[in-house]
Amino acid sequence: MSLSLPGGAKMAVAIGSDFDAHSAWMGAFGRTSPSYLSRGEFGAEVGVPRLLELFRRFDIKTTFFTPGHSMVTFPERMEQILADGHEVASHGCYHESIPTLSPERERELMEIQLQQYAKIVGGRPRGYRSPAWDFSEITMSLLEEYGFEWDSSLMGREYEPYHPRPVELHYESANIFGPPTPILEFPVSWYLDDFPAQEPVAGINAGLGDHDLLFRRWRDIFDYAYENCPGAVYALTIHPQCSGRSIHMKVLEKLITHMQSFEGVYFGGMSSIYDCWTDDEDTTAG
Q1: What is the pTM of this model?
Q2: pLDDT at 63
Q3: How far is 93 from 112, CA to CA, in rounded Å?
Q4: Per-residue pLDDT reduced to its tens digit, 223-235
Q5: SS3 call for 201
Q6: Can you give the pLDDT at residue 132?
Q7: Residue 103: how many CA atoms within 13 Å on its side-chain side?
Q8: Shortest CA distance to 154 belongs to which of 182, 124, 132, 138?
Q9: Of all helices (H) and strands (E), which one includes residue 265?
Q10: Element holding 128 (H helix, E strand)
Q11: Which long-range contacts (CB under 8 A, 24 or more apart) does 120-124 make?
């Protein structure tokens, strides 16, 4: 398996903006007060335009992982994202908690978000990111059924794309892996996510961490990949309501400047990186 990037680049940087807006507070946290909703509104009305301007300035394309709810609530922001040539991938219907859903409800919400995507973006999404980065027992089979090509929700590798396998649990003997899915996984990491370190949620997440520490963490993870992992995909996850804040914009600007100082680094959306991937073996084999 190999990654052949444009211009012979040695690694890829995929910046994924989770454009959750109101939906994260509604679906993930059940916080619907005016204060929490206003934080989602900030992400849409201030954070997204700031990020788009930054991406234009550095001439890079990214992927906006967007719940259907954000698409239909803030269609003007979707127009701006698409006009700038960024990819839009699926990110749930209203940032629902996937593992708590019944199979029937998970399928229903998948169909709703695909309908919303078709209405606002057009066509069908190529990629998916699960809200809260978690699956149910049927999520992967739904992705296969509905024609997704790639996912970015799981953590079975650090930098290397891979094909996840289902796991049959055995507590008193070895777990058993099933056959790999044809879905290509671009692994994520909580270490490469702005939300846990920076976004306060009362009673759940302290946030408000040291922004200089955040930059050093992200920089060091990039440097390790560049020095040790040819063909790496550095998947950074940001949220407009968090990284769209002024101090975090400075962190992101400093990080992109650092990464662009290295030769052979390709910046692109997930699907453009997927198109550079070649499987050297049958991924459906056991």
Answers
A1: 0.96
A2: 98
A3: 7
A4: 999 999 999 999 9
A5: strand
A6: 86
A7: 5
A8: 132
A9: strand 265-267
A10: strand 127-128
A11: 120/71, 120/72, 120/75, 120/78, 121/71, 121/78, 121/82, 121/88
Closest CA to 225 of 77, 68, 13, 70: 13
Place of tokens 């680094």: 265
- Measured in whole angstroms, the distance separating CA 52 from the mean position of its chain's CA atoms is 16
List, for the chain, all residue ranges whose pLDDT scores fall below the cut of 50: 282-286
- Write phi, then psi, for 16 (nearest 5 degrees): -110, 120
Q: Which two tokens stand for residue 261?
A: 């100082």
36, two tokens: 């929490």
CATH of region 12-276, choose from 3.20.20.370, 1.10.443.10, 3.40.50.150, 3.30.1330.10: 3.20.20.370
* H helix or E strand, kind and range, residue 141: helix 139-145
User: Which amino acid makes up residue 202?
Assistant: A
